[in-house]
Amino acid sequence: MLGPVLLAASRSDKMRRFVSAAPGTKQVVDRFIAGETVGEVIPIVKDAAANGLEVTLDVVGEDITTVEQSYAARDAYLELIERLKELGLGERAEMSVKLSMFGQALEGGHELALANVRPVVEAAAAIGTTVTLDAEDHTTLDSMFAIHEELRKDFPQTGCVIQAYLFRTEDDARRLAAAGSRVRIVKGAYKEPASVAYQDKAETDKAFVRIIKILMAGLGYPMIGSHDPRLIAITQDVARQAGRKLDEYEFQMLYGIRSDEHVRLASEGHRMRVYTAFGTDWYGYFMRRLAEKPANLLFFARSILTKG
Predict the structure, then answer these.
(1) Catalytic residues, which ones?
(2) pTM to 2 decimals?
(3) 142 three-class SS
(4) Which of the two residues, 285 and 7, has the higher pLDDT score?
(5) Alpha-carbon span 97 to 120, nearest angstrom
């Protein structure tokens, strides 16, 4: 029951101020956020590469309110790409972007977000990597998919994310599982109404498995975003049944969660990508991580009590 409360809190300015001021917050935030600057995250990319891992980098932030902020988000990604280019790390790190950061919710937001994300996708392609468009709440998805389709005309490697808890996602998966596509499947981490999304974890898990089967049977490149050992094992079975080689799909997990499993899967020959978030506007991302798993919330509560 705490999950929906935490998701609602992720959009509360009052809760943002409370959590930011809590004495144990930094210790827990550091578990999920790789740093505040590009300079702080680059060593993590290097370490991942040394351990046979790949990363997807997310400059955290969302719910912007001005066009100028959308330009700043674009420029933050362009700076990141330039640093990866200088260090020869382009092929080890892709980017994940939230179109809300690029102005999607502002007036004329669809066109603004497309105009802002295009140079990021172009710059990523120039250094041998790509961009994946993150899924946000269900009201933004038609715009996200339309932008994804437009970008793929010139940059077919551009990826997108689908969320298992939404009723629409199985149809989206069938449409997206085409040759050359790159699709990340996750459970979903936004507060969605019962009219559009499963509210029960077991139903979401069943949908996740159905969607894995759709993606593995298709012609695209599935990216499985899950830390659940059972779903990982099911994915491996489904991939074998579909005749997939180990380099024809990948697992993705969050930075700071089950790090030993990242290394284990990579050592077995799987492609393993670590979703690595960094930046100063960490609050919304952090609260969704707490909502996803009760153990994360308990860890946070213990830290506050210990430091308080």
Answers:
(1) 134, 184
(2) 0.87
(3) helix
(4) 285
(5) 9
